[in-house]
Amino acid sequence: MIVPLDEAVRELVHDGDTVALEGFTHLIPVAAGHEIIRQGLRDLTLVRMTPDIVYDQLIGAGCARKLVFSWGGNPGVGSLHRFRDAVTHGWPVPLEIEEHSHAGMANRYVAGASGLPFAILRGYAGTDLIGNNPNIRTITCPFSGQELAAVPAINPDVTVVHAQRADRDGNVQLWGITGVQKEAALAAERVLVTVEEVVDALDPVPGQVVLPARVLDRVSVAAGGAAPSYAHGYYERDNEAYRAWDAIGRDRGAFTAWLAELTATAPPPAGPAAPEPAGRGL
Amino acid sequence: MTTVAWTSDEIMTVTASRSLCDGMSCFVGIGLPSTAANLARRTHAPGLWMIYESGTLGTVPDRLPLSIGDGSLADAADTVVPVPEVFNYWLQAGRIDVGFLGAAQLDRYANINTTVIGDYADPRVRLPGAGGAPEIAASCREVVVVMRHSRRAFVERVDFVTSVGHGSGPGDRERLGLRGAGPVRVITDLGVLEPDPRTRELVLTGVHPGVAADEVRAATGWDLAVAEGLEVTPEPTDAELSVLRSLTGAA
After folding, report:
1. Which superkingdom, per the lineage (chain B) (predicted)?
2. A38 is a domain residue
């Protein structure tokens, strides 16, 4: 159950898979994304509500054939330039896109987790998203006659999320802004969770989400694995790294150099980072 | 003796903050809207109930967040809910008074584009996309748009309707089943535009001090009508400016 990250990615993620690495600003599974790049996976359909810089990196590295998303930007900074380059110039490979609103994507995960074929919502009416995406349709309520939007369930082949901690049996605990991770995990065929640390017992935390080990496939320790996003109670968001990404992402040469450095580096060690992470706990 | 000087961005943010009343619930986007909402809460609207789409309800951040999901927002929130709940239970169910949005392009009916410049299939510029905006524009009781004024941004027709303002005119929102009132005000670095109650077309109803109506018309990509009794925005107060500058670090 608890295995090194490179082994977990090798076992669970395959070329051509639909992969959701979720995280809404907080707990973004960056280390797992980097391992996908290192292993040179190709033709992935990447799914995420808020693709940010780790998706920019996956796209720039040529891992993705398609992106399913609702907001693709560098939060608080600007655009994702690798994403933009792939969409407008097909570099390094063409990228197909399927684009929704946040409400639509959130409900698609809820339907996927619920074992339903589609979700309904009040949304999209009057927008050009509808005409450009065959996965947004309308449905008439059989009770009231109201016309509502319908979107298909998302059921990723693999969902990857990052969490604060797991116990030795692989039960996972996360807290703070928990986004859509529970739904994304329960919607998936296979689930990989990276954690800051493994502990003997998961002491309850207010607002926590617990993912029981029985719905997960592999847990890997990746201390600092959400950076430059953050892990509530462990480390803060590195806003400067998000700003600094802008210049790297803008330039194919700078990005290529960044990529060469990443792929030349071994994955992070499975043990806890030393010294103890500052601000651990609550 | 001091002369209070301010920038066009500062008066835009101050004017936007004055759109928010004490006790309102406000769905806050990042950037200018977030700055304006946090300014309002620290000045005339201490009871403003701010929601960020990451799920932080009733948050009172001690500093301006860079993203909609900074840890400081979660620490300072009444409660943090999962993302599907924000959109379904809070926004879709009609519990939010005002949505604050930005735009890359806006047209005469206040329709909003944050998706692409140019053709969707072969865009000149690819923008981040919809995020929460389509449903914020649909379901909040009212919407306030904050953006800088230019002919590139204020266009006859948006290249892509990401979020519906007033569609193509009167009756469109009702026909589409959009339950909120839509954009009631567009606040820029030059002035204030509001929809004509009859035609729903945006009309210039206010200018900031020192700005002429013709200047605003020249920065607008359609033949912008000017309201009778055009108002001049009251200047930012010392208190507003000092709070704003403490938030943005421009003190």
Report:
1. Bacteria
2. yes
